[in-house]
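=== RUN LOG ===
request id: a7f3
mode: sequence -> structure
chains: 1
length: 809
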Amino acid sequence: MHARLVLLLAVPTALLAQTGPVNPDFEKGSPGSVPDGWFVPAAFTGYDASWTTEGCHQGKACAQIVPKANPGAAPGNLMQMFDAGPYRGKLIRYRAAVNVENGGRAGLWLRVDRPGGVMGFFDNMQARPIVTAGTWQYFDIDGFVHADAEKIALGILVYGTKAHFDDVTLEITGEIPVTIDERARPLTETGLRNLTALTKAFGIVRHFHPSDEAASVDWNRFAIDAVRRVESANSANELAAALQAVPGIGRRGLHKSLTTGRTLAAGVCSLADRCATIGGVKSAYGSWKSPITSDLIVAQSIGLSEVRMDGNDVYWLESRPEERGRSVVVRWANGRAGDVLPAPFNARTRVHEYGGGAWTVAEGTLYFSHDADRRLYRLDPGGEPVPLTPAHDFRYGDGVIDGRRRRWIGVREDHSAAGQEPVNTIVSVETGGAAMENEWVLTAGHDFFSSPRLSPDGRRLAYLAWDHPRMPWDGTTLYVQALNETGEPVEIAGGPCESVFQPEWAPDGSALYFVSDRSGWWNLYRREIAAPETRVLAPMEAEFGQPQWVLGMSTYALVDDGRLVCSYVSNGLGKLAVVNTNSGELADIDTPYTEFSSVRAVGDAVVFRAGSAVSPAAIVHIDLSLGRSEVLRKATRVADDEGVRKYFTRVEQLEFPTEGNRTAFGLFYPAFNPDYTAAEDDVAEDEKPPLVVKCHGGPTSAASSTLDLRIQFWTSRGISVLDVNYGGSSGYGRAYRERLAAPVIFFQGDEDQVVPPNQTELMVEALRAKGTPVGYLLFAGEQHGFRKAESIKRALDAELYFYAVTVFG
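=== RESULT ===
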């Protein structure tokens, strides 16, 4: 979801008489002053814009935009406005050279003003921000000027960094068809479906068709004419016929000029699901060349997780393979991201072995568990980490800060008794002094604890607990305990056969929210504290919770007394929504993502981790009041490269019959490469692409729908991938989650204490005894999940070799 930044500006009167850009090459000006003919609007005062002769692209001068010490939320803006007269009724292209320093972004913007204060064409590159990382590049905005347009405004917006701006041009590229100014009208469901099909086919033909003829097409006019023709089609055949009837465009007409490949109409045949591959070299499946290599995969990826909010500041955790998997807390403030945790500190815990929740933040102070010594530390702004706990064989995680009593409250796991089961408790640790014996047990008596949540008044603590042999997705109990000398745990919800997840207090402390699968699906509930009344919110056959493999998980957050924002999974793919906590009504939020986690909110500001099959994991911020979204960090920038992104395939939900007349599910990734089509022999024999079948770890987990370059590695080579959500996977209700499943593990860390090497080796030997081909590699220094770049690369290359020998050989 991308919002418009609408620019309402006070414009110097003298500039309105212009009939085109003035001083577009910035050759006129004086040092320290705004370039001649340009101005900075009064509402954008956080940045200085000036004429300079340093670091320019061409000529002797350019403009630079530099943030002040405290620039505020508004971006920097350098612009000019002029009379639209010479451009009325025209298609136009605004182009400029931009150089953005590392760590920031920018965007050209172009706006057309119509009579009565009505805004016409507008584009500010919100969906395609400029991130040049210190190099000059040209960027374009293609638009049109209405026949009744009064003014044209253009400029550059800069966010949180320094940028240079040069060589501005505004050219007329053609006449706009009369249909572009048609009045809005209601769109039928059929019309919407037809236009969606047209959009998909249009994008693939325009950008991927390998012909010289395609380059000669007037695509703007084609799109306008095609929209009118396809809108009323009532079938796929009518839709294809309508496209074929679009008037000739370019030298010989579009549908004729593309007969050497596939016509646009032919590409519509399966647009309800996926457009067909267009053109390309004919080559056997599995032999297609791709820029997605193992080196590319490991060289440009980081792990993103555990979002936190502290006032207006956003924090998250980055796992960096190039630092041997070190987990670093990062802070986003004033439009910039910066490391909070200095090397060599590593924010990681081993509580419950899987860890999670190793850190929290309050009023700018970071509290974290350091992986090397397992101790709990405090890091004040501008200071050095100070240990809060002595050097015991304890592990800490899932903490919250009790500001009134200056203490950390969280889970402690005691490993001091050699050869015995670790002891889990919830403890408090004083945060004001140096390391000493300053811990007190608040509650004990269960094998496992998680999710301590302090009430707004600080008087009560909610938490989850469970015991062997159950896992948290089998059965947990939600307790509330008064934090006084006589406080005893009171059971609120859950039990041996009910999985409760993520308790959260209402802002006024009058109720507890939680997720429970008592209905067979993880749904949201509200429990009143004064009266023992529990009611479900937005009941549906969908999963609002997740298997609690790690601590610190969050699928929803309270926005205010009447709303919460949440993520949920339906048929294997995720959605984001707002729930009215009074009526229980749910409204989906339109986003481009299909997987969500670590949802947090402060007021209308919502931050979460998200991704889709064609976009990498990212930390995303949404302003609910403005409907505006912003990506704060991406796990990889590789998808920003069109030369790589065009090779990505999209995910399809899949269900298929299995034993006992039951149904299983999965995520299917079709083989796709814009440079290739199947060899003639494969087509003649109706041969399908080879299929790699993946099974996620677990069993109680689920296939991820976030961009995985390891999947695109195969599909871009002509090999389809099925990521199976076998019986036992989450995302399809409790009954499906309880089906028996048996995954196979091929790659093993020699320090893995969750699945030790001897267990894996027993499975390997059993497979070999049956004559099943099996590969087994042991990785030194790795645990349950690989973190080193060299291990990830070696595993991927070995997997490719294994398939080549045992499957394709």
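=== NOTES ===
The CA atoms of residues 472 and 548 lie 6 Å apart.
The longest helix spans residues 189-208.
=== END ===
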